[in-house]
């Protein structure tokens, strides 16, 4: 299958309007077995509760039956199991659709096919869930645009309930622009958030709804400079002129409405941001320029050691509070577990947190996070029994025995050697 996918990718790249008429046959026994093994273990189960381990017990028999149903067109995805998880710092809940394991296998197979075709079509402004691109790459490019280009205004946009409002009819129309295999198109049943296929379909939808429209229509109509950086359904737009930023925002609402999407106006704003933002803020009687959040970081206007403008970032208050609340709940429920297990879990958790948030300028914020985590640990370990277990001195001795990693810069936001091709 890998060889065939490479051939599909080559054809998609060389023939930008080519429609692929024969794809469903790639979902054969060998490829689906591979997809099964690639799926992670111990994940939430679908409506029938079948785990990966249970499916493995009769793997060959199950896959042969699945292939047979795919060929005879009798395969139909099982309805997803709806779960609702709390939104960060909110009483609202986010819906997730959990497919059955067998449907995850099929979705993974289709995802590989779609990636082979559309990775060549997607624009450089898109970073979410794509090979060799990540959140840090998006932050680097956004930083470059604001610092090195003529950017004076930022439009910080939030799409209201994106995954719940993707229009299936439009999605099928977008797929048909490149895929003419009715057998493959028949299998797709939408984009429930949490599904294996969700990221590629979300990118596909916003590629046609947003990215192409911005690059081919919006930028060409602007007299000044204009840029977009998108990660999944989270995106920021940069403009040289305020009037063009405002015109874009109004046209964006109309554009999204056409495709059954809506701007969350309470979370969307146009702010002066860039080298002249401080001067603009003072003229309006404000002490500091406005800030915006993107990919878990609050971006604010700062200066370098020479006194020149520079974009700086710190962990957003929302993400910080959410992670601390999650840590507190875990400790509350697990404080009586073996201390080696608790400290090992904290070590792994901090390493993961550092790998994402330890970027240029943000280590002070991460140090504050670690201090608050240590306080929570001290507080809840003292609740393991009725008698107080630790004083601060004893707790520090305890940390010498079970040391936790300290934050240091993991990502240099100015190292854009890999990303330079995106912005030239």
How would you describe what is shown here?
The protein is built from 17 helices and nine strands. It has helices at residues 2-14, 29-38, 52-56, 59-71, 101-118, 135-148, 162-165, 168-176, 182-187, 198-221, 242-258, 277-283, 317-334, 339-357, 363-381, 392-401, 420-423; strands at residues 81-86, 93-98, 153-158, 226-231, 234-239, 269-272, 292-294, 297-303, 309-315. Strand 1 and strand 2 (93-98) form a beta hairpin. It is globular and about 70 Å long.
Proportion of beta-strand residues = 5-15%
> Low-confidence parts, pLDDT < 50 over ≥5 residues?
none
Derived from helix and strand composition plus strand pairing, the structural class reads alpha+beta
Biggest β-sheet, characterized? 4 strands, antiparallel
Q: Write down the Rg.
A: 24 Å
In which range does the helix fraction lie? 40-55%
Distance between the termini: 34 Å
Strand order of the largest sheet: 4-5-3-6
> How does the overall form come out from the CA principal axes?
globular
Q: How many helices in DSSP terms?
A: 17
Give the mean pLDDT: 92
Output the helix-strand order.
HHHHEEHHEHHHHEEHEHEEEHHHHH
User: How many individual β-strands?
Assistant: 9
Summarize this entry quickly.
50% of the residues lie in helices and 12% in strands. It has 424 residues and is an alpha+beta fold.
């Amino acid at each position: 299958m890998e060889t065939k996918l490479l051939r599909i990718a080559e054809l998609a790249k060389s023939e930008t309007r080519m429609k692929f008429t024969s794809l469903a046959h790639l979902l054969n026994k060998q490829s689906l077995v591979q997809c099964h093994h690639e799926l992670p273990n111990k994940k939430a189960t679908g409506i029938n509760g079948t785990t990966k381990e249970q499916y493995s017990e009769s793997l060959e028999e199950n896959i042969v039956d699945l292939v047979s149903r795919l060929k005879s067109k009798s395969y139909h995805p099982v309805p997803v199991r709806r779960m609702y998880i709390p939104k960060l710092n909110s009483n609202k809940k986010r819906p997730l659709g959990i497919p059955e394991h067998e449907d995850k296998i099929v979705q993974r197979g289709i995802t590989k096919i779609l990636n082979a075709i559309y990775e060549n079509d997607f624009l450089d402004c898109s970073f979410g869930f794509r090979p060799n691109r990540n959140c840090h790459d998006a932050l680097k490019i956004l930083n470059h645009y604001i610092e090195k280009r003529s950017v004076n205004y930022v439009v910080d946009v939030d799409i209201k309930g994106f995954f719940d409002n993707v229009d299936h009819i439009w999605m099928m129309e977008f797929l048909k622009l490149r895929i003419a295999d009715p057998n493959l198109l028949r299998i797709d049943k939408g984009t429930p958030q949490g599904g294996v296929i969700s990221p590629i379909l979300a990118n596909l939808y916003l590629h046609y709804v947003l990215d192409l429209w911005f690059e081919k229509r919006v930028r060409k109509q602007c007299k000044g400079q204009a840029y977009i950086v998108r990660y999944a359904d989270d995106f920021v737009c940069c403009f040289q002129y305020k009037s063009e930023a405002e015109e874009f925002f109004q046209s964006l609402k109309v554009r999204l409405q056409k495709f059954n999407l809506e701007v969350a106006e309470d979370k969307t704003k146009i702010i002066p941001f860039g080298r002249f933002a401080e001067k603009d803020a003072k003229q309006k009687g404000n002490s500091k320029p406005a800030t915006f959040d993107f990919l878990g970081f609050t971006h604010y206007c700062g200066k370098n050691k020479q006194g020149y403008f520079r974009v700086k970032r710190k962990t957003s208050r929302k993400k910080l509070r959410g992670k601390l609340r999650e840590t507190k709940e875990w400790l509350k429920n697990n404080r009586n577990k073996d201390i080696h297990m608790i400290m090992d879990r904290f070590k792994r958790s901090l390493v993961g947190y550092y790998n994402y948030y330890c970027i240029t300028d943000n280590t002070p914020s991460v140090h504050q996070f670690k201090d608050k985590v240590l306080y929570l640990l001290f507080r809840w370990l003292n609740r393991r029994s009725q008698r107080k277990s630790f004083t601060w001195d004893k707790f520090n001795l305890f940390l010498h025995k079970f040391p936790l990693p300290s934050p240091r810069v993991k990502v240099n936001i100015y190292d854009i050697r890999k990303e330079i091709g995106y912005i030239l």
